[in-house]
Structure formats: C-alpha cells, structure tokens
Design brief:
The complex is a heterodimer.
Chain A lengths: L1 H20 L3 E8 L4 E8 L2 E10 L13 H18 L5 E10 L3 H4 L1
Parallel strand pairs in A: 3-4
Antiparallel strand pairs in A: 1-2, 2-3
Chain B lengths: L1 E10 L2 E12 L4 E5 L4 H16 L8 E7 L11 H11 L5 H4 L3 E2 L2 E2 L5 E2 L4 H10 L4 E5 L3 H4 L6 E5 L2 H8 L5 H4 L29 H13 L3 E5 L5 H6 L10 H14 L4 E2 L5 E2 L4 E2 L7 H5 L9 H4 L4 E4 L7 H5 L2 H6 L1 E6 L2 E6 L3 E6 L18 H11 L2 H5 L2 E5 L4 H5 L9 H17 L11 H7 L4 H14 L3 H17 L7 H9 L2 H5 L2
Parallel strand pairs in B: 3-4, 5-8, 8-9, 10-17, 10-18, 13-14, 14-17
Antiparallel strand pairs in B: 1-2, 2-4, 6-7, 11-12, 15-16
Chain lengths: 110, 516
C-alpha cells in the first residue's frame, strides 16, 4: 500500500511540475472533501481545471485513464462543486482533465 | 481517425444495408455505440476489445464513437462484430481505411479473434449485391452458403488476423479467393445424400403412391385416412423425393430459410452442400407461433421451414381447429407477414400440404380385421372435426388399407414402384402442362382458369352431373374434382379431360362417401 501511495505522490509531483511548465497556475493540491477529492486544481487562460492524476507502472491492467470510472468522475464533480461554492468561483469555464503517467522506472525514484 | 465500413443486418428474411462509421476522438477511453443497436450489438464492445487485443493488435486509445446508419433502422444480430472491429482498427490506422470501406464485411467475433458463423448471411449478401457490392468478407463457416450468390467475390476468413492481413493486402490473392461456384452445383438430386429414403421401401400401397404422384404433379393438398400403422407417415416422408427438381430461385429461397434459421445444409457424398426439398412434420401440440412463425422479433415457423417442400400434419384431428384455420391465408398467398413494432416481416411459405388421420377415434373404422369400438356419438364428433377448415385445405383424400401379409413377405427390391419412376411420371405431367402453355400448378388454378382449362365434353358433363347429384357435392368440391382430373389428364398426356380421369378424381373424394 505504501509503495502504491508513493507512486501516486511521485506522479502528482511530476504532474504539478509539468503543468507549471506549461503555464498552468496551480491553485490547489489534494483538495479533499467528504464527497470526493481532486488531485490538482489549476487555472489557465481563465479556465478552471480540475485534474486527476493517474500513475501506472505497467499497461497490464489497461491504460491509466481507463481506470477513471464513472464513479470516480462523479466524485470529482461533487468535490469540484464544493470547491467552486466555497471560493465563489461561479461564472468561470470549468474543465475536468485526466493527467496520465505511465512510469517504467518508478522504483528508481522511490 | 474516421472510417466507414459497409455491412448488413438481417431483419426477418430480408437483408438491410448498414454502414458502420467509427470516429476516434481525444478524451477518456471508451466505446459508445449509437444507432438503434440491440443489446446483442452493445455487448459486442467487450468481444471486440478482447478479440483485437488477443490478435496482437493495439486497441486504439481515445474516445471511440461507433455509429450505425441508417439510424432509423433497428439493428440486431452478432453479424456487426467484425465490421465494428475493422472500423475501429481502420480509424486507429491499423488498417488502411480506403481499402476497408470497399468490401462488405460480415461476421461474429470470438474472444480469441476467431470468426464465428452468423445466421442469415444469404439475405444480407443478396442485399449487398443488389446495391452493387461485388466483394464480401464472410466467416469461413458461412462460405458454403455465401457461394450460392452468383456474381459476388467471396473472401472467407477464419479469424480477425486473416481479415486484417487481407485488407492490408498481405494475403496472397489467388489462395484467398474462394472459388465462386454457381448454385446449379447445389442441385437437389432427390435420392443422393441426406437420409436415403425411397418409395420402393414401402410394400404395396400402390393406390396411395398413385395418389401421391398426382398430388405432387398438381401440388394438391392430400389427406390420408387409414388405420394406425398402415404406412401414412412412411409415405408422407418420401413425398419430397418425387417432387420436381427445384429451380435456381427455389434453391435460393430454401437456402435462405435455412440460413436465417441457422440450420446446416445437408451434404452429398462428396461433402458438397446440397439443398433438398424440406419435409416438416410438426407435432399436433404445436402452437400458432410455432406453425406460422412469430415471436418478439419474428422467426419463421414450420410453414416457412417447409417452403418448397412438404408440410406433413399427422393426426390432423388432434390439432387445434384455430391453428388449422391460420393456414388459410398463408396457403393462398404463399407467404406470411408479421407486424412488429412498426415493421413488416415477410416469410415465404409455398408448401405441399399433406395430412393424415385415423378414420375414427379408435382407428379401426372400416378395417376388415378389427372391430371399431367407437360409439356413434364419438364417430359423429370425430367427423365434424375432420370437416370444415381441414377438408377445405385439401383437394384429394384417400383412405388406405393396411398391407396384406403376403404382400409384405414378397416385398423385395424393385418389386414396388420406386421414387425415380414416380418422379418421372410427375415430371412428364408437368412437362405436358408446360407444352400446353400452363405454368401454374393445377391446385393453384382459380375459378376463371378452371373454366378455361378444365373444359368438359358433353359426355363428361353428363357424367359429372350424375356424380354431383348422387354424391351431394358442393360447387367447391366440384371444382376441386375438376382440378384433380386436370392433373390426372396431364399425367395421361391428354389434352382433354376424359371420363376415366374424372372417375379417378372422384375416387379421391372419399370423405364424401364416409359422410353419407
């Protein structure tokens, strides 16, 4: 379990760096509510992005984005609603994204 | 990232052209199928994914939308597995989409990529041919059926990998092309292949055999009355062997019924497919849907399975009267149409009707050796059942006696008339009728035709007047007698109907005498 969590954290860290490099302004990390959680919340060109980072060490169980099931999407949506409510960010375009990472040498990173 | 594959589905006994459009867009991975697809087609998503992965190809990444056009047509069947799979691979650049859109593609996929046989390939191919498709990829298991359609190049493939290679041009042409055989090679030699039955197996019963030849030559409905075990069923099962050979259209239609119902073709001695005239004998407990077809999505019933062959209803009195009544319109129109959910499904059903019954409930009425134990009330009730809708369906009725012991003992090869001889007389009668410019079976003559074709001389008229009055015939049974007499005259190669023909025809109205 701990190994898996590490993989996820490394992935998220990597994603955050990449996004920053691409011009995203990261305004939240690991936003957690009772109803769901969001890995990264970022802003670019006035669009609010809710980003789920999925890291996989192999393709054996399908690609990372395939594991974002409908339930996961629901949970993201609920968390996003709460985030927007809490920060009064209405009237903004919103986008839900999946950041896919397939790592082959993650052991080296840990 | 877009592809368009030509395919077809089978609805009832009709093929419908369907285009499978596939688009791969960016987004969360998933396959959505739109276009009035049934559950069977929705389930194909999982089959296709496994088949593609197990064939060693990459399942394209992205949001896959499959559209089945025309959108208004309700589609069902597993035959779209392969076209959808090829569409996805073509949209995913694994197959050249320009070559993939040319041939018609039909087939069901197994999880390991094998191609499975689909039902109804013939109607689908006919439709694709009609709209100008000249090349078709079909499962190898369907190749036999597919070859019946002339003028279409058939590529039978056994698995998805072979199909991909074929479309990518990697497969050698000559080996891949199935030789296109003409339907004539499928003939219907009556006595070769299949269960080898022949009329010479039956000792005696020469009268019944004569009646059967006449019935086959004129396609007259036949009712056999006789005590249990006298050979009614045995005779009936051999009737297809004396019917004339099927023409190309009949072969195709019979094959289409087999194709739609998923039945295998019978094979001749060399293993080549053989289309024979069917013989169907449904049990008397059969329901309406079983006999005339039906269901949520209609499937053919026994009358359609007997198309171009014989429908034998044994123990006719045990059948529900209402069920016999449902035969009326199909028998007049030679087809039956079912309506479901705003669509009409038409099934052909042109068959020779043969029925059998015991002469009374215990079966021994009129038997010299057994006493009939039925009461008068029972007898009357039984005869009432026999009359009405049942009698209306048949032109000829014969009563049969059981074979004498000596006849049974002395029966040897060649002593009794064989199917080949009977068939020759049937064919001679049909040829003679054709020479006289008649192409319809005599049983199908309408009142107008009868007046024209069955003209009687003064002597014959006098004879029929006597019979009409003495037997208490109705105008309808009079006309039926004329039709049968016409067939007997044809067998005699006589252009006019003579007294002996009429007399023989009258002898095939036994029930009128029983009812006296």
């Amino acid at each position: 379990m701990r190994y898996l969590k590490n993989v996820g954290n490394i992935g998220e860290q990597f994603a955050a760096e990449m996004l920053t490099n691409c011009g995203y302004e990261i305004i939240g990390r690991n936003y957690m509510t009772k109803r769901g959680e969001i890995d990264i919340i970022a802003l670019r060109d006035g669009v609010l992005h809710f980003i789920e980072v999925k890291t996989r060490t192999s393709d054996e169980y399908g690609s990372p984005s395939e594991s974002v099931t409908r339930i996961k999407q629901q949970r993201m949506k609920r968390a996003a609603e709460q985030y927007i409510q809490g920060r009064r960010l209405f009237w903004r375009n919103v986008s839900f994204d999946v950041f896919e990472i397939t790592a082959n040498l993650i052991d080296n990173c840990i | 990232m877009f592809s368009r594959i030509r395919s077809a589905v089978c609805s009832g006994m009709e093929g419908r052209e369907v285009f499978v459009e596939t688009d791969i867009a960016r987004g969360l991975p998933g396959v959505s199928i739109v276009g009035m697809a049934s559950t069977m087609i929705m389930e194909s998503r999982d089959r296709i994914k496994s088949a593609i992965v197990n064939t060693g190809r990459d399942f394209p990444h992205g949001r896959i939308t499959v559209n089945l056009t025309p959108a208004s047509l309700r589609k069902s069947g597993s035959c779209l597995d392969l076209p959808i799979a090829v569409g996805i691979l073509a949209a995913g650049m694994e197959i050249d989409s320009a070559t993939a859109q040319k041939p018609g593609i039909i087939g069901e996929l197994a999880l390991d990529g094998r191609l499975l046989r689909v039902n109804g390939i013939l109607p689908m191919m006919m439709k694709l041919k009609e709209i100008g498709s000249t090349e078709l990829i079909v499962p190898a298991a369907n190749a036999d059926e597919a070859c019946l359609v002339n003028g279409v190049k058939i590529y039978p493939v056994s698995d998805l990998a072979a199909c991909i290679d074929l479309l990518n041009g990697k497969m050698a042409e000559p080996g891949a092309v199935y030789s296109v055989r003409s339907a004539d090679a499928f003939g219907d030699a009556p006595c070769s292949g299949g269960p080898a039955v022949d009329f010479s197996d039956i000792a005696g019963q020469e009268n019944a055999k004569r009646a059967i030849s006449i019935a086959a030559a004129g396609r007259h409905g036949l009712l056999m009355l006789g005590s249990p075990g006298c050979g009614k069923s045995m005779l009936a099962s051999r009737i297809p062997t004396v019917m004339p050979p099927m023409d190309r259209n009949e072969i195709l239609e019979t094959a289409m019924v087999l194709s739609v119902t998923g039945k295998d073709f019978s094979k001749d001695r060399d293993g080549r497919p053989l289309i024979m005239r069917p013989f169907r004998n449904p049990h008397h407990t059969i329901g309406r849907a079983g006999l005339v077809g039906g269901g949520n999505i209609p499937v053919p019933g026994e009358i359609t399975l007997a198309h171009n062959g014989v429908l034998f209803l044994d123990e006719i009195c045990e059948f529900d009267k209402a069920i016999i009544e449902t035969l009326r319109i199909p028998m007049e129109e030679h087809s039956i149409t079912h309506f479901r959910k705003g669509e009409a499904y038409r099934f052909p059903c042109d068959f020779q009707l043969v029925m059998a019954a015991n002469p009374c409930p215990c079966g021994f009425y009129g038997d010299p050796d057994h006493e009939c134990k039925c009461s008068q009330t029972q007898l009357e009730y039984y005869r009432r059942k026999l009359s009405g809708p049942i009698i209306d369906r048949v032109d000829m009725r014969i009563s049969m006696e059981k074979v004498k012991f000596d006849e049974l003992q002395n029966h040897e090869e060649g002593s009794s008339i064989s199917s080949a001889e009977m068939r020759a007389s049937v064919l001679a009668a049909l040829d003679f009728a054709k020479e006289c410019g008649r192409s319809k079976y005599n049983a199908l003559l309408n009142d107008h035709d009868i007046e024209k074709i069955c003209r009687l001389g003064p002597g014959e008229k006098r004879f029929m007047k006597q019979a009409y009055e003495a037997l208490g015939m109705s105008p309808r049974s009079y006309k039926k007698t004329l039709k049968v007499a016409r067939t007997i005259a044809d067998m005699d190669k006589s252009e006019d109907i003579h007294e002996q023909h009429l007399a023989e025809a009258l002898s095939y109205r036994t029930l009128e005498r029983i009812n006296e």
